[in-house]
Every structure is written in C-alpha cells, then in structure tokens.
Write a structure and sequence with these properties.
By secondary structure, the protein is α/β, with parallel strands linked by helices. Helix content is 41%, strand content 16%. The chain contains twelve helices and nine strands. Strands 1, 2, 3, 4, 5, 6, 7, 8 and 9 form a nine-stranded mixed β-sheet that branches. Helix 2 links the parallel strand 1 and strand 2. Helix 6 packs across helix 7 and helix 7 packs across helix 12. 41% of the residues are buried. The N terminus is likely disordered.
C-alpha cells in the first residue's frame, strides 16, 4: 500500500512539474506568447511640397520619437499604389487629395477616426458623419504668369482666355493623369465653363489642345518653369505663388473670372494599416494649432481651423468666385473619362 501511495505522489509531482514548466514557457520565453513591441514608426503617403512639409514631419519626429517613413508622389500615383497594396496595406496615413478623395476610396480604404482636434474644424472641412478625412489646409488652384514674358495688361483673366489659340504652346500644367493638382485645374475649368457634361468636355478638349502636347510631371515643375522664364503661364496653387512673390519673383496671379477650385486638401487614416495608433498621432499633430498657426506665415496656405485668422496678404475667400464644391460622386464617375479625353486631345 505504501508503495502505491509513493508512486501516486511521484506521478503527481511530475505532472505539477510539467505544468509549471509549460506555464513558464507560455508566459515567459515562448515566442508565441511574446507581446508585440510598441511601434515607433509611421508610414505616410504624401503629395505635399517637401519644402514645407518635411520640416513639419521633422518636428513631429522630434516631439514624439516616432520615425516617419514618407513616400512622396502625385495624388493619382498614391491612390493607385494604395489600391495595389490593398491585400497588404503599407501606408498608415494618406496626406493628399481634395476633400478626402472619392467616395469609393473612402468606402474601400479610409478608416474612421475622430481627431482630438475635431471641434476646431467646421463641417465643410471634415467628414462630420463618418470621420474619414479632415481638411489639413485649404488652397486655391490658380494660374501665374511671368511678367517678363507677358505684359500685365495682356495677361489672360479667365478660362475662356486660356482656351484662345493665341496661348497655344505657352501654357504649362501638371499632368492630370499623375497630379491631383492638375486634375483639380481641369475640373475647375469644366465646371466653370460648362452647364452640362457635353459642353464641359468640349471645353476640356479646347484647353488640352491649346497645351500643344506638353504637360509637367508634377505641380512644382509647372510653377518653377514660369518663375524661371521657361513658360509664360503655368498652373499652381496659392502657396507656391505667394512664396515666390514674397521672395521677389516677377510674376502675376490669375484668379479665373469664371471660377476657381478652392480645394480642401485632406489627411486621413487607412484601414488595416500596420501603425494605426501612430497614424492617429500624426493626424492630430498636423491638425493641431501649433502646426496650423504656421499656415499663412511660414507656409503660405490657408488653415482650415476655425480659431485662426485669415492669411495676411491673400484675398479673402469671400472675394474669390468658386467653381463650387466638387461633387465626389461626379468626380469619381467622370475621373477616368476626363483623363482619357484629356490625353486624346493633348496629342492632337
């Protein structure tokens, strides 16, 4: 009997030992149970001008200790890249496009996130319902001309002027196929000049033909070429124009008589991204008052915050005729046709 009891005790001790070791492995050294380390990086796809966006990114890194991996390209290229990577999302934050890009993009790729800065952004400058985008800043798409090449009294004042054959081959626009800025320009033309889609596409063909087969690969190339005297007229946004004016460039600004695209450049979190918490921090930082206060001073763009003054030196939005808020459904439905129509007319 004693022998049996001893054997039972020995077996019990062995079982306890195995269980103890199993518990130790599961909670200690086992790689299966090891907790994932907190991420210290974030990936941002950006179409912003690096001259002013890189210093802001550096500030974020210094204040948070989070490394920002930046991929810079035109909006169209970035949207295509996000779609191609959808099975393995690499981007955490998209900082590009107007009003959060198309509705189909929102549905497929954007993650809902209500920023800590939400109350400082009025309804027209955010997705108030689903929290899938915020206007990180506002910019007006305009044209500029080189005063050494075009006399001020002869400078065009409207889209109709720019479609006149006298300006053929003298216009330089970012390629709408690759550049969101370029696409916004041609959409502004279409909405300002046409009452219906048929007339809108006719005006697009006239304008594209007047470019004489030439476009710029990016928005910065288009306005720099005008400043440098390579082209008489180019298409850009206010920030670039006012920055060069401030530096003494001999250029004039054109706010089209028929209408200007007043773009709300968006920032948004992406679904299934690897560093979402850091993505949220990046968005909060870029929407915060410290960064937004630099718009109109260090950075010549308009802040979308409701607690900051109007940019000094820029015309008030109330004095600029808008082509209207671009309907995202219309833009999404027409985008491919706009691009194809533009390409076909460009090479004729």
């Amino acid at each position: 009997m004693k022998k049996v009891v001893c054997l039972v005790l020995i077996a019990t001790l062995l079982i306890c030992s195995v269980c103890a070791n199993g518990t130790k492995e599961a909670t200690g050294s086992s790689p299966i149970a090891t907790q994932k380390k907190e991420s210290k990086e974030v990936t941002v796809y950006s179409s912003m001008d690096t001259e002013w966006s890189n210093p802001l990114i550096k500030e974020f890194e210094e204040q948070t200790g989070i490394k920002v991996n930046v991929v810079t390209a035109g909006t169209g290229e970035l949207l295509a890249r996000i779609e191609a990577e959808s099975s393995n999302t690499l981007c955490d934050v998209l900082w590009a496009g107007d009003s959060g890009n198309s509705q189909s993009f929102q549905d497929k790729y954007a993650e809902s996130y209500q920023s800590t800065e939400d109350k400082y952004y009025d309804a027209q400058y955010k997705d108030a319902e689903n929290h899938k985008w915020y206007a990180q800043h506002i910019e007006c798409n305009i044209a500029i001309y080189n005063k050494d090449l075009v006399k001020e009294e002869e400078a065009p004042k409207s889209w109709a002027d720019l479609c006149d054959s006298k300006w053929k081959g003298k216009l330089y626009i970012p390629d709408p196929v690759k550049s969101g800025t370029g696409l916004n320009h041609v959409i502004a033309l279409m909405l300002s000049m046409g009452k219906d889609d048929a007339s809108r596409y006719e005006w697009l063909k006239k304008f594209a033909t007047n470019l004489d087969g030439i476009t710029a690969s990016g928005s910065s190339i288009a306005y720099k070429a005008v400043v440098d005297g390579e082209y008489p007229i180019g298409f850009t946004y206010e920030e670039a124009a006012f920055r060069y004016l401030k530096a003494g460039a001999h250029i004039g600004l054109i706010y089209m008589n028929e209408g200007v695209n007043i773009a709300r450049t968006s920032i948004q979190l992406l679904k299934n991204s690897p560093n979402q918490e850091n993505g949220k921090k990046f968005i909060d930082f870029m929407l915060g008052k410290e960064v937004q206060s630099k718009f109109g001073t260090v950075i010549m763009r308009r802040s979308a915050r409701n607690d900051l003054p109007v940019v000094e030196g820029m015309p008030a939005l109330s004095t600029i005729k808008s082509c209207g808020v671009v309907d995202p459904v219309w833009k999404n439905d027409n985008k491919q046709k706009i691009i194809e129509t533009f390409k076909d007319a460009l090479i004729k």
